[in-house]
Amino acid sequence: MKTYDRPKIEVPKTTIERLLNWIGGLTFAAGLLYLMVSWGSLPDQVPGHYDGAGEVDRWGSKWELLVLPSITAVLTVFLSFIEKHPEWHNYMVSLNERNIEFQYRNSRQLLNTIKNLLLITFTFLNWKTIQVALGEADSLGMLFLPAFMAVTFIPIIVFAIRSFRHQ
């Protein structure tokens, strides 16, 4: 089935998708609130970048703390929009009448999961950066990069396996 031939099918959101949206949204809102409350206490220079071991390797203006929430908000809006159009997604299996509803739901759930895990991860990153700037933490820690990679790639692998199992 070609991309332009795919039908638009209304597949209701699952309870898990709605729950993840709430958790991601509330986490992001709490992170913004924490940033606003902490703003007056922040020094002029805050961590601007971390190396692979989670150590600060560049310091920058505290205004840089607004970059990550801005990127997160734009990504969330974009992924939410794309999530609503599974007929536009790329699929690793051929779509047919028997599997199209499952494949649409599976693809949408993958985007929903990644979107909300990014919301939570980027909010954690901003929170931890504030902690480092205030002297309440030394670094992100060595496990941040491997954890971020796992949070990104494990859902992709899991949902790809699900997709292949339901050809």
TrEMBL record:
Presence of the UniProt keyword Cell cycle in the record: no
Keyword Membrane: yes
Stretches that traverse the bilayer: 20-42, 62-82, 117-134, 140-161
Signal peptide: none
Annotated Pfam families: DUF1648 (PF07853)
Stretches assigned to the DUF1648 domain: 27-72
Superkingdom classification of source: Bacteria
Keywords assigned: Membrane, Transmembrane, Transmembrane helix
Name of the protein described by the UniProt record: DUF1648 domain-containing protein
Organism: Edaphobacillus lindanitolerans
Upper classification of the organism: Bacteria, Bacillati, Bacillota, Bacilli, Bacillales
